[in-house]
Design a protein that fits this description.
The structure holds two protein chains of two kinds. By secondary structure, chain A is an alpha/beta fold. The radius of gyration of chain A is 18 Å and the shape is globular. In chain A, strands 3-4-2-5-6-7-8-10 form an eight-stranded mixed beta sheet. Chain A is built from seven helices and ten strands. Chain A is 36% helix and 25% strand. Chain B is 11% helix and 49% strand. In chain B, the strands form seven sheets. Chain B has a 22-stranded antiparallel β-barrel. Chain B has a five-stranded mixed beta sheet with strand order 3-8-9-6-7. In chain B, β20 and β21 form a beta hairpin. The chains are: A alpha/beta, B mainly beta. Chains A and B meet through α1, α2, α3 and β8 of A and α3, α4, α5, β2 and β32 of B.
Chain lengths: 169, 797
C-alpha cells in the first residue's frame, strides 16, 4: 500500500469521529444538582453564586448555558475561569479538571475552611482532598462524596445526596 | 395566550418523562431545559443510557493517561516534562503481549529483539553493541534503569537486566512507564538512556477482585498469571499474585564458532572433541545432561508475590511487598569459545517497603538470591544481595516545589561457596561489594503555562573512588492545554559493576604440555577499580499537540553524546612460537608452525570510542470513536562512532605477535629448542600504544537500526468482541561479534488477538504473535524466531 493511501485512509478515519461529548454536559448538570443538596455558610448565601473552574475545561461552556437558565436559590450563577493567582475564597464551588490535578495540594490549602466546595475528576481525590469527585463506575458517570471534607469547609450535606453518590471517608 | 401557556404546562406536568423506558436516541433529543427540570436520580439514570463516559474514558486511557515516572508525582502524560510513554494494563491485555519486553514494542523509542523464545534484548533509543566487535556481554543494555515500583531490578554483575528474574507477571501491572533520555538526576545511576518503571496495581477499594490470565500455545508454551486482592478494612488492603511461564525454543540447534572461518548451526550433541573452539583447547566432552538437560527450553519462570497496603490517613500511607522467583533460560550473554548460547538459572527473593508521611517519602528495598549466569561453566555462579534506601521530602513554596533526597545503595556478589577461590578459579574469587551514596535536589516551578525544572545529583561510589554528578534542566510551555513545547539538557552516568571492577579470573585455555607449557596456557581477566563510568549528555526538543480532542501527536528530536564505554581488551601476551621441523611426540602436535600462548592478560578498561546519536521519534494516537482507536509510532536515528578502533580483542593478540616479531622481541633459539625450564618469554605489552592510535576511525554504527517502530489498532465490533492488531518493525542491522559478523534482516512482526466476553468482563481469546511466521533471526547467532499461536482465558471480577 502506498504511503499516500495510508494517509488518505487515516485522514478519513479522523474526520469520521463524532467530536461531540456528552460527558462535560452531564458533569455540569450534576454540578447544578449538587447545589440543591448542599448548604453553604450564611455569608456565602449572599451575592452571586460563584462557580470557579481552574484552568481550561470543556465544562465551562456547559456551565455558562446553565447559569443563563438557572439560579441557586436567589443567587445568580457566575462562572469564572481561575488560575494560580486567583482568589479562590470568592467561589462557592471550585472545579479542578483532571489535567490540573497536580496543583490540587496548593489549591486545597488556599481555600481550606473558606466555604469553597472542591470538585475534582481524578480517581482517589475525594479520599484525600475534594468534597466531590466525578468517577466512572462500570462505564457510567457517577460521583464520590466525602462528607467530612465538605463539613471541614463549612458546608452541610443533605443525606439524599449521600445516597445518590458513593460515600468515601 | 395565557390559556395556551397554562395548557402547555399542564400538559407537560401530566406527561412526566419516564427515563427508565427511554432509548438512547430519545435521550439525545432532550433539551437543556428538560434536563434541568429532571430529578437528580433520573439524570443519573439518563447518563447511564447515553453511555457518556465510554469515549471520554477512552480519551483518558489512550491519550492522556497518568504517569509518575517523569516527575515522580502523578500528572497527566500530556503535562509530563520529559519524553514519556505509558503502556496501560488494559493495552497489555487487549494486545495480547506475553511479556513486559514484548509490551515495550507498543511505544516509540524502544528496540526489542527476541533472541530465543521468551528471551529478549531491550534497548532505549540505541547505543546497543557499542563498541561493536566485542563479546556478547557488551551487546547487553547496561544503560537503562529498570525498576518495579521504583525498586531497581537490573543485576549488578554487568548492569543488564535478566528479564526472566522479574518476579511479577502481567496481571500484577497497573502500567509500564518509560522515560527516554538521561534521568539520573531524579533516579540515580543507570538512568543513562532512560528509565523503565513497572508500576504494580494497588487495590482501590475493599471490594475483592481476581484476575487470571492463562494461555497455552500449540507448541506447548504456557503463560499463566493470577492476581487476587481483598480489603480487610477500608484502609487495610492485601493483594497476592503468582505467575508461571514456559516457552520452547523455535529450534534446538546452537551456533558453533569456527576458529578459521564462518561457524555453523548444529546439535548440542555434536559438542565433542572434534569441535575445535574459536580459541583454546578442543572441548573435553562432559555429559551435557548436567548443562543442557532440556535443549528445547527457551524460558521457564515462576514467581509469587504479596503486598499489604495500609492508609493510616490521607497523608500517611504504608505498603510492603515481598516475593520470590525461580527461572531457567537459554540465551546469550555470556560467551564461551564453542557455541553462542548459554543457560542461566536464578532464584531470588525481594522485600520492598514504602512509607509516605505527609511530604516525606521513604523506600527500603532488598533483592537477593543466587544466579548461575552460565551454567555450562562452573565459574559464574554467585550469591548476591542488593539493598537500597531512599529518602525524599517534598515541600511547596508558592509556585515552587522543592524535593531534596538522599540514598544509599549497598550490594555484594560472592562466588566463594562455588569455586576454588584460593587458586583463582572463580570470576570474582570471594565476596565483593559496591556502594553508592547519593544526594539529589529537584526544583519544579510552575507559572501559568510555563514550567521550569532543575535537578542535580551527586553519587559517591566506593569504586571508582570518585564523586559523579548528573543534571537535568527542562523548560516547557503549555499553550491552552493543546500545545506543549519543551527543551531538555541532561547528563547521566552509569554505575560501576562487578565484572568491570572486580574481575579476577584465570581461565586455563590450554592444558599443561610437558616441556612446552608446563603450567598450561592461561587467559587472565582483571577488573579495573578506577574505570571511568559511561556518561551520556543529551539535548532534546519536544512538541506535543492535541489538534482535536481525540488526537495526540508527540514529536521529539534528540542528540546524545556518550563516552567512556568499557571494553574488554588485551593488555599483554606471552607466547612461545615453534617453527616447522620440530616434532615432539606430543598428542595433537603437528609439523605446522604453532604458537602456544602461555598467558594473555585481558583487562576491562575505558574505550576511546564516542557515540554520537541524532534522532527523531514520533507518536500519533487517535480515538476514532467508542469502538476504534489507533496509534502509530517510530524512531529514525543515526549513530556515528568517533575514535573507534575496529580491531577486536582476538585481532589485537595477533597484532601484538606481529609487532613483537617486527621489533625483534622474539628469540629464535627458543623457538627451535624447547628446554626443560623455558626462560625465554617474549612479552608484548602495548595495547594502548601506537598501532591503536593509528587504527582509530569514525564510522556509522550499524548495530542500531536506522528506523524502528510500529502501529496498533484496536476495534470492538459490539460489546463482546475485541480485535487488536499490532505491528513492530525495524530496518537492517549489522551484528558484529568479536568472532564473526552477521546481518540482521528487516522484519515485520505482526500480532493479532481476538477476544470474546463470555460473561461480564470474562473472556476467551485466541492470540497470534508473529502471525505470519516470519522466522528471521532478530539477534546475532541466536535462534530463528517464528510464530506463536495461543488460546486462553481471561478472568476479571
Amino acid at each position: 500500500m502506498r504511503k499516500k493511501h495510508i494517509l488518505l485512509i487515516y485522514g478519513l478515519l479522523i474526520l469520521s469521529t463524532t467530536g461531540f461529548s456528552q460527558e462535560s454536559k452531564f458533569k455540569a448538570l450534576f454540578m447544578y444538582n449538587f447545589t440543591k443538596y448542599l448548604e453553604w455558610p450564611i455569608d456565602k448565601q449572599k451575592g452571586d453564586f460563584v462557580i470557579g473552574v481552574y484552568g481550561k475545561s470543556d465544562i465551562i461552556p456547559e456551565l455558562k448555558i446553565i447559569s443563563e437558565k438557572k439560579k441557586v436559590g436567589l443567587q445568580s450563577i457566575i462562572i469564572k475561569e481561575m488560575n494560580s493567582s486567583s482568589n479562590f475564597s470568592s467561589c462557592n464551588i471550585l472545579f479542578v479538571p483532571e489535567n490540573q490535578s497536580a496543583n490540587i495540594a496548593s489549591i486545597a490549602s488556599n481555600c481550606s475552611g473558606k466555604g469553597v466546595v472542591l470538585i475534582t475528576e481524578k480517581p482517589g481525590m475525594a479520599k484525600t482532598t475534594s468534597g466531590i469527585n466525578y468517577v466512572k463506575v462500570d462505564g457510567k458517570q457517577s460521583f464520590e462524596i466525602n462528607k467530612s471534607n465538605l463539613e471541614n469547609c463549612g458546608v452541610k450535606v443533605n443525606s439524599v445526596l449521600l445516597s445518590l453518590g458513593i460515600v468515601v471517608q | 395566550m395565557i390559556l395556551f401557556i397554562i395548557g402547555q404546562s399542564i400538559f407537560s406536568q401530566n406527561t412526566p418523562i419516564d427515563v427508565s423506558k427511554m432509548t438512547k436516541e430519545q435521550a439525545m433529543e432532550l433539551s437543556y431545559d428538560q434536563l434541568l427540570e429532571m430529578p437528580f436520580d433520573d439524570l443519573l439514570k439518563l447518563a447511564e443510557i447515553l453511555g457518556v463516559s465510554s469515549i471520554e474514558e477512552l480519551y483518558t486511557l489512550i491519550l492522556n493517561n497518568d504517569v509518575t515516572a517523569a516527575s515522580k508525582k502523578a500528572e497527566s502524560s500530556f503535562e509530563a516534562p520529559l519524553s514519556t510513554s505509558v503502556i496501560t494494563y488494559d493495552e497489555m491485555i487487549k494486545s495480547g503481549v506475553t511479556t513486559f519486553e514484548e509490551a515495550l514494542r507498543l511505544i516509540p523509542g524502544v528496540i526489542v529483539r527476541q533472541k530465543t523464545n521468551g528471551n529478549f534484548d531491550v534497548h532505549l533509543r540505541g547505543n546497543d553493541g557499542v563498541p561493536p566487535g566485542n563479546m556478547f556481554l557488551y551487546t547487553e543494555n547496561s544503560l537503562s534503569l529498570v525498576m518495579i515500583d521504583n525498586r531497581v531490578v537490573y543485576n549488578y554483575s554487568n548492569g543488564n537486566t535478566f528479564w526472566e528474574t522479574l518476579p511479577i507477571g502481567i496481571a500484577d501491572v497497573d502500567r509500564i512507564e518509560v522515560v527516554r533520555g538521561p534521568s539520573s538526576a531524579l533516579y540515580g545511576p543507570n538512568a543513562v538512556s532512560g528509565v523503565i518503571n513497572i508500576v504494580t496495581k494497588k487495590p482501590d477499594s475493599k471490594k475483592s477482585s481476581v484476575n487470571v490470565l492463562a494461555q497455552g500455545g500449540i507448541d506447548g508454551s504456557v503463560y499463566s498469571d493470577l492476581s487476587a486482592s481483598v480489603g480487610i478494612t477500608d484502609n487495610l488492603l492485601i493483594r497476592v499474585s503468582g505467575n508461571y511461564r514456559t516457552t520452547k525454543r523455535f529450534q534446538e540447534e546452537v551456533y558453533f564458532w569456527n576458529p578459521d572461518s564462518i561457524g555453523h548451526y548444529g546439535s548440542i550433541d555434536d559438542l565433542n572433541t572434534t569441535i575445535v573452539p574459536k580459541i583454546g583447547t578442543p572441548y573435553e566432552r562432559n555429559p551435557t545432561d548436567e548443562k543442557f538437560p532440556n535443549p528445547s527450553l527457551g524460558r521457564e519462570s515462576l514467581g509469587a508475590n504479596a503486598w499489604i497496603y495500609y492508609d493510616l490517613s490521607k497523608d500517611i500511607k504504608f505498603n510492603i511487598g515481598a516475593g520470590l522467583q525461580n527461572s531457567d533460560v537459554i540465551t546469550t550473554p555470556l560467551d564461551n569459545p564453542y557455541y553462542a548460547l548459554t543457560r542461566r538459572i536464578t532464584e531470588s527473593k525481594y522485600l520492598d517497603f514504602h512509607a509516605k508521611v505527609k511530604g516525606l517519602n521513604y523506600q527500603y528495598s532488598y533483592t537477593g538470591g543466587t544466579s548461575d549466569i552460565s551454567a555450562t561453566k562452573p565459574e559464574f555462579k554467585f550469591d548476591y544481595s542488593v539493598m537500597n534506601n531512599i529518602l525524599e521530602y517534598e515541600l511547596f513554596i508558592k509556585k515552587l516545589t522543592i524535593r531534596p533526597g538522599i540514598s544509599y545503595m549497598y550490594t555484594f556478589y560472592s562466588d566463594k561457596d562455588y569455586v576454588d577461590t584460593e587458586n583463582n578459579k572463580g570470576f570474582l574469587n570471594g565476596k565483593k561489594t559496591l556502594t553508592d551514596l547519593g544526594a539529589s535536589l529537584r526544583l519544579d516551578y510552575h507559572l501559568k503555562g510555563l514550567r521550569l525544572v532543575a535537578a542535580g545529583r551527586l553519587d559517591k561510589y566506593n569504586y571508582p573512588d570518585k564523586i559523579y554528578s548528573s543534571y537535568q534542566f527542562i523548560g516547557s510551555y503549555n499553550f491552552n492545554q493543546k500545545h506543549l513545547v519543551r527543551g531538555v539538557v541532561s547528563k547521566a552516568n552509569r554505575s560501576s559493576f562487578f565484572v568491570d571492577v572486580y574481575s579476577n579470573y584465570d581461565w586455563m585455555v590450554m592444558p599443561p604440555i610437558e616441556n612446552i607449557l608446563p603450567e598450561g596456557g592461561h587467559f587472565y581477566f582483571s577488573g579495573n577499580k578506577e574505570m571511568k563510568l559511561a556518561t551520556m549528555q543529551m539535548f532534546e526538543l519536544g512538541y506535543r499537540v492535541k489538534p482535536a480532542k481525540n488526537i495526540q501527536v508527540d514529536l521529539e528530536g534528540f542528540y546524545t553524546k556518550t563516552t567512556d564505554f568499557d571494553v574488554f581488551s588485551m593488555d599483554s601476551i606471552n607466547i612461545r612460537v615453534y617453527m616447522s621441523g620440530f616434532n615432539p611426540a606430543i598428542p595433537g602436535f603437528t609439523s605446522k608452525p604453532q604458537d602456544f600462548r602461555q598467558y594473555a592478560a585481558i583487562s576491562y578498561k575505558n574505550s576511546k570510542v564516542e557515540s554520537h546519536q541524532i534522532g527523531v521519534s514520533f507518536d500519533i494516537k487517535t480515538v476514532i470513536n467508542e469502538n476504534l482507536y489507533f496509534k502509530i509510532f517510530g524512531t529514525f536515528q543515526k549513530t556515528t562512532l568517533k575514535n573507534y578502533t575496529p580491531i577486536t580483542t582476538e585481532q589485537a593478540g595477533g597484532i601484538m605477535v606481529g609487532e613483537a616479531i617486527k621489533n625483534n622481541r622474539i628469540t629464535y633459539d627458543s623457538m627451535y629448542m624447547p628446554t626443560p625450564n623455558p626462560t625465554d618469554w617474549y612479552l608484548i605489552r602495548d595495547y594502548g600504544g601506537t598501532y591503536v592510535k593509528d587504527s582509530l576511525v569514525n564510522r556509522e554504527h550499524k548495530h542500531t537500526p536506522s528506523f524502528y517502530g510500529g502501529f496498533m489498532v484496536n476495534f470492538s465490533p459490539g460489546k463482546k468482541f475485541n480485535i487488536n492488531a499490532s505491528v513492530y518493525t525495524y530496518t537492517r542491522q549489522t551484528f558484529k561479534h568479536a568472532f564473526e559478523e552477521v546481518d540482521i534482516t528487516p522484519k515485520f512482526i505482526m500480532n493479532l488477538k481476538i477476544s470474546y466476553k463470555v460473561w461480564k468482563e470474562n473472556e476467551v481469546f485466541i492470540n497470534a504473535r508473529n502471525l505470519l511466521n516470519d522466522r528471521a533471526k532478530e539477534f546475532g547467532f541466536t535462534d530463528d524466531i517464528g510464530g506463536m499461536y495461543l488460546a486462553g482465558i481471561y478472568i476479571n471480577f
